[in-house]
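Checklist before submission:
- one chain only
- standard amino acids only
- sequence pasted in full

Submission:
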Amino acid sequence: MHIEEWLETVPAVSVYLLVGLVIGLESLGIPLPGEIVLVSATLLAASQDHINPYILGGSAIAGAVIGDSIGYLIGRKGGQPLLTWLGRKFPKHFSAEHVATAERSFQKWGMWAVFVGRFIALLRIFAGPLAGVLQMPYWKFLIANVLGGIIWAGGTTAVIYSLGKVAEDWLKRFSWLGLVLALLFGLGSMLVMKWRSKKAKPAAVTADDSEKAEPQPVPAGD
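Returned file contents:
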């Protein structure tokens, strides 16, 4: 079975659920590759007609908004001890330095930190829980959360889907040309690397010889 035939057997519902779940968990505060999953699923939708890009985008938006809201409620209930616990569980993402940076962003930008944080991987994980810990009014958080979720998830789906469709049509029409260009690019890169390595060797030898030939300073006598 070819890969395209196998992809056609992937249920669309499972793709929608996977995207919504991963993005929701990431927004809740669990370090997961939500953006990578969304982009991959959107490219799949561009090549498979049974996956609806509108439903896919809606699933991503729902996961982002719901996950962020749950993270906000958890942060509001858990407070600062929650960040301490997350720091022990996920030291790479919730280190004291990262938390301090995120807190400064929230104190400076307020609800806009939630909106902008949707487009930044690290802040996307922080936004919900930290907004709750810092006692941000929920109505402010909700506005920024919904707007950020719609623009980030919906916009990413729309852009990647459009690019995927254009790339698919181009590859179907000019598949032989794409192969030739790829081969030429690979060959050209290899030749350039060889040329640079040959050019670098004499320079290194010259520099080494000049260092050896350079007279060493004579220590002054007593």
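Reviewer check: Residues 200-208 have pLDDT under 50 and may be disordered.
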